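Two proteins, back to back. First:
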Amino acid sequence: MSPYLGRDNVYPSNRRLGFCVHFTGGQHATVQPFSDEDASIETLSHCSSFSDTTSVADEGGEANEDAAEEDFQYKLKGFIDSTVDKSAKTRQGALDGLKTAMATRILYEFISERRMTITDSIERCLKKGTSKDCGQRAAASLACLLCIQLGSGIESEEVFKTLKPVFKNILADGSANIQVRQAVATSLGLCTLVAEDDIMDVHATMECFEGLFTRSYVKEDGTRPAMGPQTTQLHTNALLSWALLLTICTASQLKDILHKHLPKLPMLLESEDVNMRIAAGETIALLFELARVMDSEFEFDEWDDLCDKLSALATDCNKHRAKTDKRKQRSVFRDVLKAVEEGDFQSESIRFGTERMTIDTWVRKRTYDAFREFVGSGMNYHLQANEFIRDVFELGPPMLVDSATLKAMKISRFERHLYNSAAFKARTKARNKFRDKRVDVGEF
């Protein structure tokens, strides 16, 4: 029996983490996942024990807060144990519970100690089957959140080294569940960005993505390939992951990519699928931005034709397209057209806590969108407290804010608690580094 299912098979305060654990016949646990509504960090109703932790800390001090944290970690251990349960429903609930916890809290110390156990669980879930989704999509997403929690380094490299072959096998398996392949295409891209340690391996992964989305290119005879919406979505996800990895390519790799793909990518602007058209447009804008960074005088032979296509999409009034699709498309392609014609970008300011971050390039936008897809509404918290994500966006270490300023910030009591917790950990880490340096000097 697993140690996580000890203590007479009783989980303390089952409702406080926002999930229920039901035992049937004294053997198996059924973990009910967080709902989408529950997953909102604004209301934070999904994880009532998180707010319980705050209220207990306010009233009872450090001892009670430590007890609440221990209770929370015990429930996380239950989730980890349930990821290998025989019941697909139980595995799904456990995976969803871990995903929500990692998206809304910084759990580096807890996860670091158990990273290979969690990795093994993810690998088993990914290999459970091919024709049906038996928690594979959730497992693929959890792999990304695990890498985001661990950051870029040896630990995430170990995780990715185990999971990368599994991801690539699923991606190449035409008989696998198409929605699982879609999820893997997205997860493989972000995991590669975070954890891949060799730029040539990055390029090899990009070639895997190319093998998918290039199937949507117009054929040599001028005809468009016939494919269903799910296959088109797979190609769209592959294109977006490929675009994400463009942001870390070397100059020589970018030159080859520009020569090979920039003349063909505009073909995807004619796709019947609005998501594919938008992904293609944003990727073209990203390529132009990167090309102009390398060469401010960059020119594209088919520039006029491309601008005509982009202008038509920015003012699309096609009656057979849905109004929401046209509205979304016009907004995006106005920005893409400016990027291609003028090298301009419509900046966006994002506020989190007492800080602001400006999304002022297509590189930064593609990176921000990729992380936000996995952490969701927890993105602002990760921007405040996750050292790895702060490093990616060049925000520096987490800020230390005094209590008066925190009270003046219009955020919930729970968010103030998280901010204080993150700041305390950052300060402790900095002090430990300083102490280590003093010890080193003494020994020397």
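And the second protein:
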Amino acid sequence: MDFKEVFVKIFDQNREIALCAAGTAVALLGLGLVYKYTCPEKKLTQVGVVTQLLVHPMKSGKAVSVETAECLRMGLKYGELRDRHWLVITEDGRMVTGRQQPRLVLVSLTCEGGQLCLSGPQMEELRVPLHQPNNAVVDCRVFSVDVQGRDCGDDVSNWLTRYLESDSTVRLVHFEPHLKAQRPSEKEPLFPKDEKVAYPDAAPIMLMSEASVRDLNTRLDKDVTVLQFRPSIVVSDCEAFTEDTWDHIQIGQVELKRVIGCGRCLFTTVDPETGTITRKEPLDTLKTYRLTDPKQKTAPILGQYYTVKKTGVLHVGEPVCKITY
């Protein structure tokens, strides 16, 4: 049998495999061409630079400024610290925030070596085990939404009650992944129905620009800082209020989708350095020119709420890019 006969015989035996492989290759090529010409190309345009990343472990507590943070579906994470994953409550489960207890903004909550650490003015530092799985799971409420948290124990409760000089006992709870979370869509239908957060007012991420705060300061007798507005991500190198137009942004590998403006309340009148509340500024001034969302008639907008479409790690100094197609 010569070479030609051998080749023909082998080809006949493997004809089905060869035809199948060729067909698959053609199909994949066709799919690639369809994707290329029917799916718009993503375009990135730099609109700013990240200048601060702020984790607020305890709702209404002191911010922790970090150089890098994980950006997860439920917000920023730095080591064991998760953004707004601790909540002060009354004994019947109602949230306690800086609106009622402005000195909460001076309380620092950190985690070191498996311990939860609390510190505040004129108070001794308290350290307790971070994880206390035998403690009770408590039903509580953030505004009108039912959530749950793991009680952090009597030592923490006594410390906070003494610090706040409260006539009524307060307690601290910690959100754990298996517990009941908030669904922002229950309060605001613009949020995706599968979105979940622990104890924030609304969203996992709040972003604002330094320029917006500078603009506000030109209208005030006394300057304020971004800390007064408790953002997660602070951006520079942009014009005031341009963040209102950043519907879809990318920072490194992280993608964020804007949902709604952050409507401001009485909490903005608490000074983060002194823990005092004026109940006036800067809220009164914001109301004179930032009532920009008809749905939030009495709440001036400063900063924007975002959901996390693609998780990753954020770094101070990274460019913020607007995504268009």
